Model the fold of this input.
Amino acid sequence: MKQDTNIAIIGGGYVGLSTAAAFSNAGYTVYLIEPNKERLNTVKAGKCFFYEEGIEPLIEKAVKEKTLIPTDKYSEAIDKCSIIFSCVGTPDNPDGSSNLSFIFAAANEAAEYLQPGAIYIQKSTVPVGTGKKIESIFTEKKIDVAYVSNPEFLREGTAVEDTLFFDRIVVGGKDSSVLDRVIAIHKVIQEHHKTLLDISGITIPKKNYAGKYIKANLSSAELIKVTANAFLAVKISFANSIAKIADQTDASVIEVMDAVGADPRIGRAFFNAGRGFGGGCFPKDVSGIIFSADEHGVDFGIMKATEAINDSMANYIVEKAQKTIGGYKNKKVAVLGLAFKAGTSDARRSPGAKIANLLSSAGAQVSAYDPKAAEEAKEELNNKVEIVTSAEEAIKNSDAIFVTTEWPEFLELDLNENAKNMSGDTLVDCLNLFDISAVQKAGLQYIGVGRNGV
Ligand code: UDX
Done:
């Protein structure tokens, strides 16, 4: 077997498919192992099961040219590859700990076929200490493979961009020459920048990116990933707490965070107050690190507070708006945005869905709309929430509009025209996106989160 020309990727979720899309268009032959039949058939048809700008053309081309080979069998992939990426899901258990059953199942099954000299690379987010347990599985089975932690930092909605223009790629493990091999394959992706951009069809303005490669020990690499997400979550909950103070005064959380974030030691990013964070990563990473800290005898109070503040935000906004709307019973309310953020069809732990459910439980008749996430949101919504096919339809005859995802089309809505079709006159800006005076000029009452007490 020629070294490092064939790559196996276990798990065709967000991380696995994004990784597969990049490597399979950068000169590698990629075997994608996906046990879910429906997802597998979607990839085989050259398609992607979630919405992510630019990813489908990459998958389509690679499947057509057979540089991306989808399969549900480890036996058809692992023994042909010297590089194996584990990108399986790590959902959270009901107690908040990370469910690692897929991680260990994948390692055990791959172990049956791993070839001597191969590198088994963990991209999934795992609690610190997991890698050592997997290393001992390989040692017990007397398999000569190296284990590397290579946590993934890409964001949904900008997966292709994040893969090409990364701040850092972290590789953690025992053997420096093995880490160099993992870095080398990532450098090949960088060399294929232009090709990947051309195929994906996305245009990204020329930008500066750090592009650092960072070597670390195995446990550090595991901890780097969860620490990064935990810290960003702290920033968001911190901003939301400041917003609550601003609401009690005539301060604006946006003015405050613009000035505070201008200090480079602090930074402006992830300092936006609103309905809190959702998605497949932050909520589970926060509960995961709390649990993992507890296991190591550390009381991670700051993360517990972060989680509690985040959990409070949807209700805080619904209650705050209630005063202006005058109760929710028999009111019609539009909820615009079910994706956990713009640019994705992902509605896992969606704050928009949570707000829709709260409004519905409070007696409102809720019409929800999202340009991409309506289907995936069904699982998150209670069955009284009606999903409609346009923002205008949701708004028609409504007493209030809640904007819960920052889709550009919501900001481009003609407020004057839409206001005329409403029964009431309230716009609840759950992400502080709108210009307050433009909303008021359209005859609507504006409610934000920490903006001048309105
Ligand atoms: C996150 C990390 O950013 C990424 O590095 C990691 O690999 C996976 O987890 P993602 O879940 O795709 O990425 O979304 P992100 O853009 O980080 O947003 C997470 C949530 O925080 C969203 O619900 C977003 O609306 C919310 N958010 C973000 C805020 O409420 N305020 C902010 O200032 C920023």
Residues 218-247 form the longest helix (30 residues). Residues 276 and 310 are 5 Å apart (CA to CA). The longest strand covers residues 6-10.
